[in-house]
Every structure is written in structure tokens, then in C-alpha cells.
Design brief:
The structure holds 2 protein chains of 2 kinds.
Chain A lengths: L2 H19 L3 H12 L4 H7 L9 H37 L18 H15 L3 E2 L5 E3 H4 L38 E3 L5 H9 L4 E10 L11 E11 L4 H16 L5 E5 L5 E10 L16 E10 L1 H6 L8 E7 L1 H9 L12 H4 L7
Parallel strand pairs in A: 1-4
Antiparallel strand pairs in A: 2-3, 4-5, 5-9, 6-7, 7-8, 8-9
Helix pairs in contact in A: 1-4, 2-4, 5-10
Chain B lengths: L1 E3 H4 L9 H10 L3 E8 L4 E14 L2 E10 L6 E6 L9 E11 L3 E2 L3 E3 L2 E3 L1 E3 L2 H4 L23 H5 L1 E7 L10 H12 L12 E5 H4 L1 E4 L7 E8 L8 H9 L7 H13 L3 E5 L7 E6 L5 E3 L5 E3 L5 E4 L4 E4 L3 E2 L12 E7 L2 H11 L4 H8 L5 H17 L2 E4 L2 E2 L8 E6 H8 L5 H8 L5 E3 L4 E6 L9 H12 L22 H12 L3 E2 L5 E2 L1 H6 L10 E2 L10 E2 L4 H13 L6 E11 L18 E11 L2 E2 L9 E2 L2 H15 L5 E4 L9 E10 L5 E8 L1 H7 L6 E6 H6 L16 E10 L4 H11 L4 E10 L8 E10 L7 H19 L2 E2 L1
Parallel strand pairs in B: 12-23, 13-16, 28-32
Antiparallel strand pairs in B: 1-11, 2-11, 3-4, 3-6, 4-5, 6-7, 6-10, 8-9, 14-22, 14-23, 14-24, 15-22, 16-19, 17-18, 19-20, 20-21, 25-27, 26-27, 29-31, 30-31, 32-33, 33-39, 34-35, 36-37, 37-38, 38-39, 40-42, 40-43, 41-42
The chains are: A alpha+beta, B alpha+beta.
Chain lengths: 360, 814
């Protein structure tokens, strides 16, 4: 063994020993400087390679490079080891209590009746119905007379009416109904006429909106409420089509297994008229206070558009026919969420409103 | 209408149980709203015979009775407070352990020192009727065995039938019997109506003069002598009670009984108080007055129809009789009226007097032309039988001629097309016959003769409904939706729903408040309550809901107040509803462009928002901060961003901006790029907050939502993402105090050109370094060059901003 071989061997051993003893990044860097730096010991040894006899030089060169690579690797390895130790320490120091509560992000809530009306729109949209809107402040003509409800007709009892006052009459202490017959609409049915007058056949519209009635308030009656009315006018749509449509709507809203009942009803603006029930959602049909022990809940009224109404809407009743239906989103929302008092829908109390989520 | 099934069986056979009967009626359009079973909830209520009735030893108003209840306990002592007891009567005795309606349990009890082994029951205690005055007497003789169950005896099943307004004919036992017979195939049995006439002619005793036959198409009258008017028989009283009417006297009970039986309202006059038997049907004269039998004096006018004697009114036609000619126990001679009056006239009068009666209700809905005559004979039969009266010969009748039936022409094919079922002419006849319709013809066009009681059937569509009812709505096939669809139109309500969802995502809770508000709400909100622009209700339910809101402010402040009452001050609410105004003659105002029925009254969708309380600390140790105007602007900006509308500019509102509920120095407008306001926002005036009981400094905003939606470009094209780093530059802008910071930002934004990608105010400084009366605003501008390293364009843009700020606002740029 040449002297140089011996020196390289000793350096290799010393490096390993010193690195394992080094207790910090700085100590390792010092070793690197001492061995591999510009005037480091290994660097110096390699500079002296030229002094070795020519025959030994290749072997010595290989050995020197080998040692250099090994030392370099040992230094990097030791550094990584030490740094990992530092990070572990930091990570350990940074531990959080993961059971701590969230930062609160305020999420608002939509009104449940509005959400139900959105759902209705989507269902009807799938069946080709468009939304058509009309005014809440209506005329007696549109709300009643053109719908085949003449003045002093007994069926007017079905719609107790809030009359708009003649301008100035209240201020003058002599309140009287507006001479032009302005009222607050008692149902969305006047929009049927407005749609018929504005559109050509075939017509397929729903008319969601707010309605008003002279109605004493209790848990199930409100003087303001919402309605969604539907209207179809074409040439052949029949009572059988109405029945199929309503059954499909009930399945869409209350599930495929819902029981339905299609029976005679009465409205002056439809003939024949229909009342449409679903099996009581509370008792399943056995009879309970919610369904007055009948096992059924009426969710909408409907019928074939009365010939007089068709004519008032600009359609020849000998040629055109169709159906109309109306439903109460407030009551449907009460059924959907088990709300027992309709007055809650006009409350701003966030303890009520914040219970309604978007759902699936 | 209350239909005791036992009574119904007089006119038609019913083999169905009550539930089946109710279901069948409902499916035929006679909706049974409820089934009441009186007796179902009585247990251990038995027939007892009063053996002794003595004064209670310790109480003057109580009786100690001895009652024989047969095999149910023999002779027992019961204490009772009723005053109609007589030895020998058969009475309902609730034994110890019995349960009465309302879950009332009968126990053995000591009453003033005497043990009572049960209770004797009144009608109301049994749920049989409204009578609470005395014990419900079951009989006197041996007709009922003592100890028998009272439920079996007088228990009754009563259907409550919701007869629709067009079916006045079905507001009677016979009318409903016709419906039952039509679906059971049974026969209707009409009640006995033969009259044994004696003595002189009715026409010599009674005269009737009708001023306007259009208002009184038929009037029939009969004359009775020798009337002994006492209580009506027990069977009649029980039926009336079961049907919801109170027995009064034999004569009155007969009129009510026949009304319920046949549907014909009637009135009986004490003939001795109708001078000369002369009756006139005429309009009331303005100023005339009438005391009706409910002892209320009524002011009449010429829009009302009355029955009068030779001088003054003695009854309100079709509604209620007068007190002066009321039948009493002393009455011996009676005039009975059975007539048809004009429905709308009766309805109008009854409504204006607030006097709807069973009679007026039936007149409103219409009475078949043949009914008065039949009904007066039926009543005469009963009066003679019950009171022993002599019925005078003949009848006074203004229009005795039978009239031809109404005929309707019906196309079989058209009907089939309307109903969506297969139909042939014969089938149509088969379906209609049980309902009393005669069908003639065999081809497509048939003639249908309508029975006289069916006033509601006048057209082919009405006949179609009868066919559908007879065919059974349950047998109409449900055809799956298939249709020729109309061309697509976009949904006008969908954008509003998007706004709702965005706002919920931004943390606001939706409320739906009443459109009808009160004068107090306006006053509390600083709004004038007497301006002509308000739309007011003539007949409000209460003053609190009598005016259609002209602004969202009262709703918002009210909603917040409701939450604050429940100690919930940290709320953000929105309401997307309508506001309303009366602007006759004006062209449609721009802020009310939505809808109108053309009466000068306008309504428009408006978004109202309100927030108050704290921005809740998001982590322990952080401090809370009050919700402020900046937060509300943040919500408004975010709504614009989410919709894709350009963010609005904010500026101070003028003093008379129409929002007097706001702090005058903290009241702003939401404006578009051209400076036109389409919304407003501000902090609540401290005085207004106090009036509503609000704490803190609530901030509200109101936006004309259709105008905001108009700002959203229909065409939403995007630019490619530039492959160049953005360049950030800061400017310090020093202006005079009094220059609005909104103007600084607006000038900077509009002068910066298309490269400006962001603009942010990040500091405001007042102090020595800028001098008295001056403010320094620190702006951060981010530019997005089109190509890398294009700093010249950025510097150019920055210079334009500097120049514009100097030129327009006199600013120093540092």
C-alpha cells in the first residue's frame, strides 16, 4: 500500500467517525469545509496525485474519486438526517387542537315556500310549462266577471275579497271601494285570462304569485298567501289528460308510491271541475286529525276551462279546450316540513327560517 | 250541511256503512268533510226512569232523584240540577265509570253531602245538540226499556256535507237522497204531502201583490186556523238537533224541518198580525225600519226586498221575518209563505245587513220552480198532523203553470273529446237517467232535458260534468302527459330566484313579509301616511294590514325588530317582494315598471336587505366588529359580481331622497355607470331605530331588482388569459377634505384605460404630513399588460390616472 492509499483510507475512516459525531448542521458544514473545501484535506490529496508514480496514478485516481463521492454522500446524508430532525421538532411544536371549532362562515337560508315554488317550476318546466306572471292589484273584471263569476253570485263566497279603496275616500273619512273595481287578487286565476289574451295556442303556463283574501288569521288561514295556477289550452287536451298530468305531478312531488284521488269539485271557471287529493301524508290514509279522519288531503283544485272563460280569453270554445289547476304552495310547504302554523311563513324570526336548508 | 243518516234513510235505502256512503258521496262531488258519530264515545249511558224527584236536603237548586236503570244497577240515587224533571220520564243516565264526549269521566261523588251515583245528561253533554237547559228527555211511557244503551237509541251518525255553491238543490235531505239513489240504483221516496183541506178558500183570506215579478218569480201561501202551537214532537226535535237546528215551537220547527228536508225556505206569520191577510212584495222605502225576529232593528233602503202588510214591512224577503208577526205559543191562525226570491238580490241584502241565514243561503243558490208548491203542501201536512190545525182550501200561487224543462243540445263526439273517454249515445242516456235527465235522439246531437231542480245545468259543458260524475271520475283514464308544446319562452321569475340563491350564499336569510302594512308602520319609518300615492284597502281585516307598502323599509325594520325582540340582534335579512304606488295619469314610472292592471296602480319587484349587530368573532381572542355600511356595500358588490353586472358606484343621497328612515349623513345611492340610481342604502336614523326598538346601528339597502338585472349583459364573452405578469403600482392621492372618495376611485377607474385589472383603496391618512383640510388616499392599482415587459403602456396609463386626478379633483399625487 502506498502512502497515499493509506492516507485516503484514514481520511475515509475519520470522515465517517467525525460525521457520526457531528451534532448539528454547522458541524457537518465545518467537516465539509475541512475535507472538501478549496484547501480541504481531500482536495489537497487529490492535487498531489500528480506526484505519484505514473503506473499507480490511474488506480489512485479511481480510489480518490471513490472516497470523494463517498464522503460527499455521507455529508449529504448526515445533513438530511439532521435537517429532518429539526423539521420533526418544528412539526411537533406546531401541533393544533384539531377539536377546536370552525371559523364561522355565515350561510343564509331561502324561504321554504319560495323553495317549494322553485321546485314546482322545475317539475312543470319538465312538462313544458312556462311561467307567466300577472299583477297582484287586479280588477273585478279579471278576478271575477271574466272568470264566469258575476256580481252577487253565491260562489263569490269562495273568495272573500279585499277591495282597494277609492283614492282619497279613506282620507276624507268616507271609505268606499274603488269605483273602477280595483281589488287585490284573491287567486292567480285572473292570470289565466291574461295569458290567453297574450299568447297563441298551444298554451302551457303556470302562474305563481301572491294572493290576498279577507280572511281571519289562524294557524291554517292567512290573508296573504301564494298560489300556483296552471293553464293548458289547445284543441284536444281532455279531462283524461288533466288526470294523467296531476297524477304525474303528485308522483314528482310526493314520490312514485303516492296514492291519489281524482274527484268532482266546483269552480265557476271550470266545467267539469275537479278536486285532487293525495293520501294523507301524516297518517298514511288511516285517518287522523290532520286529514279530518278522511285519510285524504286535498292538494289542488282543477277542471276543464269553462267555455265562457275560453271565449273571454279570445278562444272559440267549439274549437279549443284545455284545463286549469291551482294549488297552494303554503299548505304544500306545511305538509312537506311539518309546519303547523301558516303564520310562521310571514315571520322574520331566524329561529324559524334558519331551519330550511337546500336539501339534496 | 249536516245529514243525519237515520233521517236520510226516510227517503232512500242506504246499505252502505257511513264511511262507504261518505266515500261514494265525495267521489260524486258531494264532499263529506267529516263524519260525526254521536254515541260512539258514550259508554255506560243507559235509559233510566225517574221514580222520585225530591229537593236536595242541602241545596235549594238541586234535586235528589231516584232512577231505575233496570239490569244495569236497579234503583240508584243521582243528584241533578236541571229544572225539567218529572216523575215517570225516561232520561239518559250516565253510570259511574261512563265516559262522555270530551273524555269526561263520571265518578261516584258527594255533592253537598249527598252521594250521587252518576249523572243525568242534557243534549249538549251527549253531543246531541246545543241544548244545555235541561235533561234530554227520551220519552215518558213504556216505549223504551230501562237499562237499554242510549247510544243504540238516539246515537246518530251525521255526515257534514260540503255542498258546492252551484248545487242549491242538494242542500236538503231529499236532494242528497237523489244523489245517493243515482249511484246505488235505488228509488227516492218523497215524504207524504197530502193535505186535508177544509173550510173556506185561502184566496178569500190571503192576498199577495208582487211589485217586481223578476225579483219574486214565485210566491205561494196557505192559511191555517185552529193552530195549537206548542213544542214539536220529540222525533222532530231530535232530528232538528242532529241537523244543527234548535227546536222552537211546532210551527217554526215544521218550517225548519221542511227546509232541511226539501231545501225550501219558508216563513210562518201570525195571521192576526197581518191586517186583512194582505201581503205586498215590494222594495223597501229609504228610511223604513224593521225589527227582525232576532229583535234587532234594521234600517232598510230601496235596494232591499221586503214582505209588507198594507203599511209597513213585516219581513225581509227570503232572509228573516219581522218580530211584529212572529208566531208564538198564543198564535192560532197562521199564514205560511213558500216562495222564490232573486238570488243576487237576497245575497246583496243579506251581506249588507250582515244577516246570512239558512234561508238566505238557499235563495242565493237558487230554488227550482216546482219546489215551493210541493214544500208548502208537505208543511201543511205536518202542521195539520202536529198542531191539529185546519188547512184552508186551495192555495195562493202567483204562477201555478208548470213550465217546460230546460233543454240542452249535446254533441256526443264533443263530450267524448272533452272528457277523454269513449262515449256512445245510448251510454250517455244510461248515465244521465238516474240523475233525472231525459235524453232524446240517437245520433251525435242529443237533446237533454234537465230536471227542474237542477238550475246549475244550462250548457253542454254542464252536462259533460254530469256524465263524468255518473261515469265516475275514478274511471277516467289518466293519460300520461303528451302534448304539442308551445315555443320556448324564458322564465321571468328565474333571475329573481338566482338573486335569492346568491344572497343566501352571501349569508342573508330570506324573509317574506306582508305586502299589507299599517299606518303605524309608515309613521314609525318616517314615511308620510296620508299621501295620495298610497294604495289603500277599503275593508282591511285590521288597521295593521291596510296599506300596500310603498317601500321595503317598514318590512325590513319590522323584520329586524321581530328578531331583536327575541334577543337576536346579529341578523342579515332580505326580502324580494313588491312595492306599490298609485300614480294615475302618469306614464309608467321607471322605478315601477313591472306590472299594472291598467288602473293607475303600479307594482314592482324590489330587493330589500337589512343587517345589524356584530360580525361575530371568527376565532377566540379576536374582537367583534359592528356590521356597517361597508359590509352592506360588500354584499351589494358581491351580488353584482355573482350576477355578472358591473359593480355599482356609491354616492351620497340627496336630503329628500325618499328614505327618511335613514341617518341623513349616512344615506347613499347605488348608481350605474351613467350615474343613474337604481338603489339606495344607509344607516338607520337613530330616532327611527328607537321607534322600532332597534339597538345598534342597523344598515338597510333597497334595490329595484329588474333594473339591476337589466345591467347584466346578455352577451357574456370572455377574453383569453394574457401570458404576462400583472404590474402593481401604488399612488398616494392627496385631495381637499370634502372630495368624496367615491369620486377619487371613479376618476382613477375611468381614466386608467383597459389595462386596469384592479383598484383598491388601502389607506386613508389625515394629519401633519398632508396639512390641515387635506386627506391622503393610498390606492393600489394592478395593471395587466397584454405582452410581457410592456411597461411603457402601464406607465402611460398611470400617467393618465395622475393627470385626471389632478385635473378633475385638484389632487396632488405623491
Amino acid at each position: 500500500m502506498t502512502q497515499m492509499e493509506a492516507e485516503l483510507g484514514a481520511l475515509r475512516a475519520a470522515a465517517a467517525e467525525r460525521l457520526s459525531a457531528a451534532d448539528g448542521v454547522d458541524a457537518v458544514e465545518a467537516i465539509r469545509h475541512d475535507l472538501l473545501g478549496r484547501s480541504g484535506r481531500l482536495t489537497a490529496l487529490m492535487k498531489n496525485l500528480g506526484l505519484a508514480p505514473a503506473g499507480e496514478r490511474p488506480a489512485l485516481g479511481r480510489l480518490a474519486n471513490e472516497v470523494r463521492t463517498e464522503v460527499q454522500g455521507a455529508i449529504d446524508g448526515r445533513l438530511a438526517e439532521l435537517r429532518a430532525g429539526d423539521l420533526d421538532e418544528r412539526l411537533a411544536a406546531e401541533e393544533l387542537d384539531m377539536s377546536a371549532p370552525a371559523r364561522s362562515i355565515r350561510v343564509g337560508h331561502l324561504h321554504p315556500v319560495q323553495t317549494l315554488m322553485r321546485d314546482l317550476r322545475q317539475v312543470f318546466h319538465a312538462f313544458g310549462f312556462e311561467v307567466f306572471e300577472g299583477p297582484e292589484i287586479e280588477t273585478d273584471a279579471y278576478n271575477f266577471e271574466l272568470l264566469n263569476i258575476p256580481p252577487d253570485h253565491p260562489s263569490r263566497d269562495l273568495w272573500d275579497t279585499l277591495y282597494v279603496a277609492e283614492p282619497g275616500s279613506i282620507e276624507a273619512g268616507d271609505s268606499r271601494p274603488a269605483a273602477d273595481g280595483t281589488i287585490l287578487r284573491t287567486h292567480t286565476s285572473p292570470v289565466q285570462l291574461r295569458a290567453m289574451q297574450a299568447l297563441d295556442a298551444p298554451i302551457r303556463v303556470i302562474t305563481p304569485g301572491r294572493c290576498f283574501r279577507y280572511e281571519a288569521v289562524d294557524a291554517s288561514h292567512a290573508f296573504e298567501f301564494f298560489q300556483v295556477e296552471g293553464l293548458v289550452v289547445d284543441r284536444d287536451t281532455s279531462l283524461a289528460d288533466l288526470k294523467g298530468m296531476l297524477e304525474e305531478i303528485a308522483r314528482a312531488l310526493y314520490g312514485r308510491d303516492v296514492r291519489t284521488r281524482f274527484r268532482p269539485g266546483y269552480y265557476p271557471f271550470t266545467e267539469p271541475s275537479v278536486a285532487f287529493d293525495i293520501g294523507c301524508l301524516v297518517c298514511g290514509g288511516d285517518g287522523c286529525p290532520a286529514c279530518k279522519r278522511t285519510g285524504w288531503m286535498t292538494i289542488l283544485g282543477a277542471g276543464m276551462v269553462h267555455p265562457v272563460v275560453l271565449r273571454n280569453g279570445g278562444f272559440d270554445p267549439d274549437e279549443f279546450q284545455g284545463y286549469a289547476f291551482g294549488m297552494g304552495p303554503d299548505r304544500m310547504t306545511m305538509l312537506r316540513h311539518g309546519v303547523s302554523d301558516i303564520r310562521l311563513f310571514f315571520s322574520a324570526d331566524v329561529r324559524f327560517g334558519s331551519q330550511f336548508a337546500e336539501g339534496r | 250541511m249536516r245529514v243525519p243518516i237515520r233521517w236520510l234513510r226516510d227517503y232512500v235505502d242506504v246499505d252502505l256503512d257511513p264511511q262507504q256512503l261518505a266515500d261514494e258521496l265525495t267521489m260524486r262531488g258531494m264532499e263529506v268533510a267529516s263524519i260525526e258519530v254521536a254515541g260512539a264515545d258514550w259508554t255506560d249511558v243507559v235509559v233510566g226512569r225517574l221514580l222520585a224527584v225530591e229537593r236536595h236536603p242541602n241545596a235549594d237548586t238541586l234535586w235528589l232523584t231516584l232512577v231505575d236503570v233496570g239490569h244495569r244497577g236497579g234503583e240508584i240515587e243521582i243528584v241533578c240540577g236541571a229544572q225539567n224533571l218529572q216523575i215517570g220520564q225516561l232520561v239518559p243516565a250516565a253510570l259511574v265509570g261512563a265516559v262522555l264526549p270530551g273524555d269526561r269521566k263520571i265518578e261516584r261523588s258527594k255533592i253537598r253531602g249527598v252521594v250521587s251515583n252518576g249523572m243525568l245528561c242534557s243534549a249538549i253533554e251527549l253531543g246531541l245538540g246545543a241544548d244545555a237547559d235541561g235533561i234530554h228527555i227520551l220519552g215518558h211511557g213504556d216505549e223504551i226499556p230501562v237499562g237499554a244503551s242510549v247510544a243504540d237509541l238516539v246515537g246518530e251518525t251525521v255526515l257534514d256535507v260540503d255542498v258546492k255553491p252551484n248545487r242549491g238543490d242538494a242542500l236538503s235531505m231529499v236532494g242528497l237522497a237523489r244523489e245517493v239513489a243515482a249511484f246505488t240504483g235505488g228509488e227516492v221516496r218523497l215524504p207524504p204531502h197530502d193535505v186535508n183541506e177544509v173550510g173556506e178558500a185561502t184566496a178569500s183570506r190571503v192576498t199577495v201583490q208582487i211589485d217586481e215579478p223578476a225579483l219574486n218569480p214565485r210566491f205561494t201561501a196557505r192559511w191555517f186556523e185552529g193552530v195549537a202551537n206548542g213544542p214539536s214532537p220529540d222525533w222532530m226535535q231530535q232530528r232538528l238537533l242532529a241537523a244543527g237546528m234548535r227546536p222552537i215551537s211546532a210551527i217554526v220547527d215544521v218550517t225548519n224541518y221542511v227546509m232541511h228536508e226539501l231545501g225550501q225556505p219558508m216563513h210562518a206569520y201570525d195571521a192576526d198580525h197581518v191586517p186583512n191577510g194582505a201581503m205586498v212584495v215590494r222594495r223597501a222605502r229609504d228610511g223604513e225600519r224593521l225589527v227582525t225576529i232576532d229583535h234587532v232593528e234594521r234600517a232598510l233602503d230601496e235596494r232591499m226586498l221586503v214582505i209588507a202588510d198594507e203599511e209597513r214591512p213585516i219581513g225581509l224577503a227570503g232572509i228573516m221575518g219581522g218580530a211584529s208577526s212572529e208566531v208564538t205559543d198564543a198564535t192560532t191562525r197562521v199564514i205560511l209563505e213558500s216562495a222564490i226570491f232573486d238570488g243576487p238580490k237576497i245575497r246583496n241584502t243579506a251581506r249588507r245587513l250582515g244577516l246570512r241565514s239558512e234561508a238566505s243561503m238557499r235563495h242565493e243558490k237558487g230554488i227550482g220552480a216546482d219546489l215551493p208548491r210541493f214544500a208548502i203542501d208537505r208543511a201543511a201536512h205536518l202542521i195539520a198532523e202536529i198542531t191539529g190545525a185546519r188547512v184552508a182550501s186551495g192555495i195562493v200561487d202567483n204562477d201555478p203553470q208548470p213550465r217546460p224543462p230546460v233543454r240542452v243540445s249535446v254533441s256526443v263526439a264533443r263530450t267524448a273529446r272533452l272528457l277523454g273517454i269513449e262515449l256512445a249515445a245510448e251510454r250517455l242516456g244510461t248515465l244521465l237517467a238516474p240523475l233525472g235527465f231525459d235524453v232524446h235522439g240517437a245520433d251525435d246531437t242529443l237533446t237533454v232535458e234537465v230536471p227542474s231542480h237542477r238550475l246549475d245545468v244550462t250548457s253542454a259543458a254542464d252536462v259533460a260534468e254530469e256524465i263524468a260524475r255518473a261515469h265516475g271520475y275514478e274511471n277516467i283514464p289518466g293519460r300520461l302527459p303528451a302534448a304539442v308544446l308551445p315555443p320556448y319562452r324564458s322564465d321571468p321569475s328565474e333571475p329573481r330566484h338566482r338573486v335569492r340563491r346568491i344572497l343566501a350564499g352571501l349569508g342573508l336569510d330570506e324573509m317574506v313579509s306582508h305586502a299589507l302594512i299599517g299606518r303605524d308602520d309608515l309613521v314609525r319609518s318616517g314615511l308620510a301616511p296620508d299621501v295620495p300615492e298610497l294604495v289603500r284597502v277599503h275593508n282591511p281585516l285590521s288597521e295593521e294590514h291596510s296599506i300596500l307598502r310603498p317601500s321595503m323599509a317598514p318590512s325590513l325594520l319590522g323584520g329586524l325588530a321581530e328578531n331583536m325582540r327575541w334577543r337576536q340582534p346579529d341578523v342579515r335579512l332580505f326580502d324580494l317582494g313588491k312595492i306599490y304606488a298609485y300614480r294615475p295619469g302618469n306614464p309608467t314610472p321607471r322605478d315601477l315598471q313591472s306590472e299594472t292592471a291598467g288602473t293607475g296602480r303600479y307594482e314592482a319587484w324590489e330587493l330589500g336587505m337589512i343587517g345589524s349587530g356584530e360580525i361575530v368573532p371568527t376565532a377566540p381572542g379576536e374582537t367583534a366588529r359592528a356590521f356597517d355600511i361597508g359590509d352592506m356595500k360588500g354584499i351589494i358588490d358581491a351580488l353584482h359580481d355573482a350576477l355578472g353586472a358591473p359593480r355599482p358606484a356609491y354616492r351620497a343621497a340627496e336630503a329628500d331622497s325618499g328614505h327618511p328612515h335613514r341617518h341623513p349623513g349616512r344615506n347613499g345611492l347605488v348608481c350605474d355607470a351613467a350615474g343613474r340610481a337604481y338603489g339606495s342604502l344607509g344607516e338607520t336614523h337613530p330616532g327611527i331605530a328607537a321607534a322600532w326598538g332597534l339597538s345598534g346601528r342597523p344598515v338597510d339597502a333597497s334595490i329595484a331588482i329588474d333594473r339591476l338585472l337589466d345591467l347584466v349583459p346578455a352577451d357574456r364573452r370572455v377574453s383569453p388569459v394574457p401570458a404576462a405578469q400583472p404590474v402593481d403600482r401604488d399612488l398616494a392621492v392627496v385631495t381637499d377634505e370634502g372630495i368624496a372618495v367615491g369620486d377619487v376611485l371613479r376618476v382613477a377607474r375611468t381614466s386608467a384605460g383597459p389595462l386596469l385589472a384592479g383598484l383598491r383603496l388601502f389607506d386613508v391618512y389625515r394629519g401633519d404630513q398632508v396639512g390641515e383640510g387635506r386627506v391622503s388616499y393610498a390606492l393600489a392599482l394592478r395593471f395587466q399588460p397584454e405582452s410581457p415587459g410592456d411597461t411603457t403602456a402601464v406607465e402611460k396609463a398611470l400617467n393618465k390616472v395622475r393627470g385626471a386626478l389632478r385635473h378633475h379633483l385638484g389632487a396632488d399625487i405623491r
